[in-house]
Amino acid sequence: MPRPLLFLVYSGSVAVSRITAGLAALGAASPLAVALQGEPAAQVAPPATELRLVVMLAVDQMIPEQLERLAPQLEGGLGRLYRQGTVYRDAMLPYARTETGAGHVTFSTGCLPRSHGVVGNGFWDRGLGREVYCVEDLEVCQVLGSGPVEGSGQRSPKNLDRPTIGEIMQAKNPASRVVSISAKDRAAIGMAGRSQGLVLWWDKNGGGFQTSTFYSPSIPDYVSHWNDGWLERNRGFVWEPVGNRTERDFRLIGSDVDDREGERPFSGLGVTFPYSIAKDASEKAMGNFAFETPLCDRFVAELAREAIRQESLGADDDVDLLCVSFSSCDVIGHANGPFSREVTDVLFRLDRELGLLFDELDKRVGADRWALALTADHGILPLPEYLRPRGVDAFRVPRGESSAFRGEFVERLQERLGSRVRHRSAPGGFRLDEEEMKAAGLDPATTRQVAAEVCREVAQRYPWVQTVYSYEEIQAFDESADGLEKLLRNSFQPDRTADLVVVNRPYVLEGIEKGTNHGSPHEYDRRIPLVFYGAAFPKRISSRPAGSQDVVPTLLGLLGVPAPGTGLDGVDLGSDL
């Protein structure tokens, strides 16, 4: 299979000094500029090209093969990045739990989950004694055009333990503006962190784009205006493939037939084009339909273009930040798989939307005055039904067999302990009932180790299970860890890791009857595109290992901004450029 890609982009054709341009972009009065140059930054002649806007661009679940296979027909923004960027073909996530929350925060902080704390979309919080959503915050609430909605949409970056690039930029220059937009709350919040600015995500109940009282008690008038009209503007939308491509066209770019075994119907609309919803559908039904079709990608792109204009991003001497994450590739990929007609069409549409976005940046900011980093938050396993005819031993584990494995584990564990200790599925593995362990007089650490041993013994009769680790075993992994153990260490956070972590063998989908999933430590879930594009970054392909944790260090190097005191796990790839 083709190797993964890394794209980080700084737009334009005139190479500039990475440090000098960055200092100028931070503003003449920047204390950092004065400290590093030894004299007021205003006395230094600005370079011919000055960076004014950084763009962080994530395409949820986009695997690197997508850019390679679709390149001949990509005529918009994706094509521009692929053909003009610095491409890292071996880019890969260096941790085990490959999920959206962890991927976006790794991208925005330059840190691994073991450092930034967002180990997955959810986790068992040992301090609270319950499962927590990664951007959950019960002290805030949703904000729509009508204002705050108490008790609803309680989201914030409360669970992030490291600063994002927006926070770092604003710490150096509070005048820097930050905008972050996505269909998903964990993407928009995960990229913005605690930055002061506009942070928006989609309301699947049909209210349009929303924020949280953590960021603001209201949303801007232009966003409210967009929200007021989105429903009527899109009634009657029918999702059909764009571009009038023939069956031969689709075959040439590696897109499978429309009706495939293993696809999961979404929104009750089947698995083949066209997809539509009744013109008189309710606001809530339309909101969900938009989320599950390419409409939401288009909406995010529209709001991003409007934010560039309304927030005057990149229009003055203070370098600003625009974060945009597109979710449709993931939402639809879960149902149809990465090589489906549906995902192929999503990416062609995204290519067009990004072309419009980049044109807006060129016009408003200047072609040599904005920089962009493109990556994905994780990969995906192609449908087993797609892989098997191609010689890959991929299969689905029925729910009954999965339940039998767990039932046998509980029975054997009770025999070994002499007491019943219930287990429950927890994000990232199993957890054992703490109260029952205490009531039985069992030491939790010893019990977890015994449980791991029993689980490994039981797994020998279930060949789809690769291995099992206890909390303490993962906790003991140090810098010398390699392979799977290193990946697990990089996803370990003491207060947010399960008691037992079960790793299935590659190409297995457990308990998923249709569609597909990600989240494993296997390469197909860790491989991502990563691209640098622009004046500071030559058009080239690099085989240097890299990952999304390297984006923030590289951009800070471009800006001439030191890493925060908490440190970074990624490295500055500037020396490679």
TrEMBL record:
Q: Which PANTHER family match?
A: ECTONUCLEOTIDE PYROPHOSPHATASE/PHOSPHODIESTERASE (PTHR10151), ECTONUCLEOTIDE PYROPHOSPHATASE_PHOSPHODIESTERASE FAMILY MEMBER 7-LIKE (PTHR10151:SF126)
Pfam family, any one: Phosphodiest
Q: What is its EC number?
A: 3.1.3.1
Q: What is this protein called?
A: Alkaline phosphatase PafA
Which InterPro entries does the annotation name?
Alkaline_phosphatase_core_sf, Alkaline_phosphatase_prok, Phosphodiest/P_Trfase
Q: Which residues form the active site?
A: T100
Q: Which gene encodes it?
A: pafA
Query: SUPFAM superfamilies, per this entry?
Result: Alkaline phosphatase-like
Q: Which GO terms describe its molecular function?
A: alkaline phosphatase activity
Organism of provenance: Saltatorellus ferox
Superkingdom of origin organism? Bacteria
